[in-house]
Amino acid sequence: MAKKSRTAKSASRAAAKAAPRKTAKTKPTAKTASAAPAKPGRAAAPSARKALASKGRPAPAPRRRKQKVAISHHREEDFKADGLRAYAVYRDLGIADATHGLARAHVIRMLPPCNPHEVSKLHTHAVDFQMVYVLKGWVKSYLEGVGETLMQEGSCWTQPPKIRHMILDYSDDVELLEVILPADFKTVELST
Description:
Layout: H1 6-18, H2 30-35, H3 46-54, E1 88-92, H4 95-98, E2 104-110, H5 116-119, E3 123-126, E4 129-136, E5 138-143, E6 147-152, E7 156-158, E8 165-170, E9 175-181, E10 186-189
Antiparallel strand pairs: 1-2, 2-9, 3-10, 4-7, 4-9, 5-6, 5-8
């Protein structure tokens, strides 16, 4: 067996490095796909995205329509009896239109005098978020898990989704600011 010269060995090594290597083709697993980060400027491979989603990470939120500016100035004629309750008038602040239904905000004026037989009805709202702020006067309410609470001018509270609640009494001059997500929601009256 003849010995190869050093230059022949070097030449064959260089040729071997330059030649494409043949390897067994395998599909990348979620583990190998997520281990190799995507190159800068390139999107991650579909298998890498699946691996991230399978690890319990939330999917990206759907794009919402662009919101508009909503400006509302106080005008008495904007208080209308077109809201949820017959014993109140509502001044819509234009938030539902500006947010394409994402949220609603209105000023609520309860009509005097308070009739506990009419207002004290246990109910829930299917909302994602609800906040009430007392602008004027006072309101006494019942919230499940909290009990009876007197809310006065400057008081603020949230009502978690589907919490049982009701109004018990209110002053003749009460005004409330209410913010709700989403703008349209279902109310369920409960029997007591």
